[in-house]
């Protein structure tokens, strides 16, 4: 009889433990990214983890909103289609908020303001000062970016499109292109971390087309959008967003 009581108590305790674990279980937030866009998202070669400003921020926002965050790697041009088909819940990939994209997805509160610039050879510094100077030149871009859109609008430009920023940079270093057109902070981070390339390349002071970055959710998913915006606002108010910003842009 005593043994039966012990078994019953053990079963009851196990049931309570399972119920408690289930109550504490968090929903999974699947985040799509394209990790070649440093310092926003890239693969840390030592830890083999996805890192960067966007990665730190979406993890913080997701956790604040009550989710476990899973990062999924895919090509930049596949991110919005993956969101629309439900293969990911959020896109965090330095995505500029544009009217065309707003027709397809919903954006969170903007979290970063950027601008387009160009990366050129130092020997061309006097020759290429603005985008107008790039007429009839060969340009390298990353597929699906606003930099790619800008390059295609430059009169007579011959545009080579690549899946990753590193391929575009290599095209420039190989003298197959006169410039890479991309977001200025990405260009600056590349030069900061590639001293050999920095000896050959430079970024003119010129900046065009100020643009805001936001996280994307599926069109009409207001429940998730509201959760993410609320979490972001709370992190902003607490100073956590500024702390993450300083880690990547002021160190």
UniProtKB/TrEMBL annotation:
Instruction: Note the superkingdom of the native organism.
Output: Bacteria
User: What does UniProt give as the signal peptide span?
Assistant: 1-25
Concerning its family, UniProt says: Belongs to the bacterial solute-binding protein 3 family.
Q: What species was this sequence derived from?
A: Sutterella wadsworthensis HGA0223
Q: Which UniProt keywords apply?
A: Signal
Name of protein: Basic amino acid ABC transporter substrate-binding protein
One annotated GO molecular function is: ligand-gated monoatomic ion channel activity
Start and end of every Ionotropic glutamate receptor C-terminal domain? 28-251
In terms of CDD domains, this protein maps to: PBP2_Arg_Lys_His (cd13624)
- Which Pfam families does its entry note? SBP_bac_3
């Amino acid at each position: 009889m005593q043994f039966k009581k012990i078994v019953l108590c053990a079963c009851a305790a196990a049931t309570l433990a399972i119920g408690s674990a289930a109550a504490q279980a968090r929903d999974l937030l699947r985040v799509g990214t394209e990790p070649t866009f440093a310092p926003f998202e890239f693969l840390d070669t030592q830890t083999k983890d996805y890192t960067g400003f966007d990665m730190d921020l979406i993890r913080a926002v997701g956790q604040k909103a009550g989710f476990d965050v899973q990062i999924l790697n895919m090509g930049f041009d596949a991110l919005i289609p993956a969101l629309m088909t439900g293969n990911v819940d959020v896109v965090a990939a330095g995505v500029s908020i544009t009217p065309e994209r707003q027709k397809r997805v919903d954006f969170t509160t903007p979290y970063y303001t950027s601008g387009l610039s160009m990366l050129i050879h130092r020997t061309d510094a006097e020759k290429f000062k603005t985008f107008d100077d790039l007429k009839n030149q060969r340009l390298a871009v990353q597929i699906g970016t606003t930099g790619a859109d800008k390059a295609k609008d430059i009169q007579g430009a011959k545009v080579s499109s690549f899946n990753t920023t590193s391929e575009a940079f290599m095209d420039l270093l190989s003298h197959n292109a006169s410039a890479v057109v991309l977001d200025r902070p990405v260009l600056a981070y590349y030069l900061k971390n590639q001293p050999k390339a920095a000896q050959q390349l430079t970024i003119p002071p010129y900046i065009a087309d100020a643009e805001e970055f936001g996280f994307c959710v599926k069109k009409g998913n207001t429940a998730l959008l509201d959760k993410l915006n609320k979490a972001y606002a709370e992190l902003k108010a607490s100073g956590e967003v500024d702390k993450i910003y300083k880690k990547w842009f002021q160190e």
